[in-house]
Amino acid sequence: MSRPYWVLDTGALLAYVHGVPAVGEALVEVADAEGTVAVPLACLLEAYSLLDPGEHELLRMLRRNPAVRTVLPALDLDNDDEAPTIGSMARHTGRLGAGHAAWVALANQAGVITSRPDQIRVVLGVGWEVLEV
To answer: Which of 40, 52, 60, 125 is the most buried (most CB within 10 A)?
Structure first.
């Protein structure tokens, strides 16, 4: 799968579930270009924890979209263990999901769709491509 154009953080996932048009429009644009978007696992888990069980189906539908891929951190203690970097970014952003989203964006040179651009920019800088929802 190609590198993602966007990373959806927790706020973006919640915005999608609550029908914010900008998220759906970004997904359509990426799919039309045969691109992908990334959903960091920490953000997905945070979103599920903040939603009512009746809203979970909307996230399940999003995850079934062929343009969407869930990204797990590499956890190889002897090689590419991303946990320390994600944890450090989370310390600076204030949230585990924001730290994981920032890491996935940095590793893939992808933009971030977020409801909290301040959290993302604290580690990626003000020039990073961010779509606020």
So the answer is: 40
Alpha-carbon distances, residue 7 vs 54, 78, 119 (angstroms): 24, 27, 14
Which tens digits make up the pLDDT trace of 94-118? Answer: 999 999 999 999 999 999 999 999 9
Instruction: Characterise 95 by phi-psi region: left (phi > 0), alpha (psi -120 to 50), beta (else).
Output: beta
> What's the predicted TM-score (pTM) here?
0.95
CA 13 – CA 82 distance, rounded (Å): 23
Distance CA 131, CA 93 (A): 17
Q: CA 125 to CA 127: how far, in whole Å?
A: 6
Helix (H, G, I), strand (E, B) or coil at 26: helix
| H or E element in which residue 114 lies | strand 111-114
Q: Which residue, among 100, 31, 37, has the nearest Cα to 68 in the 3D structure?
A: 37
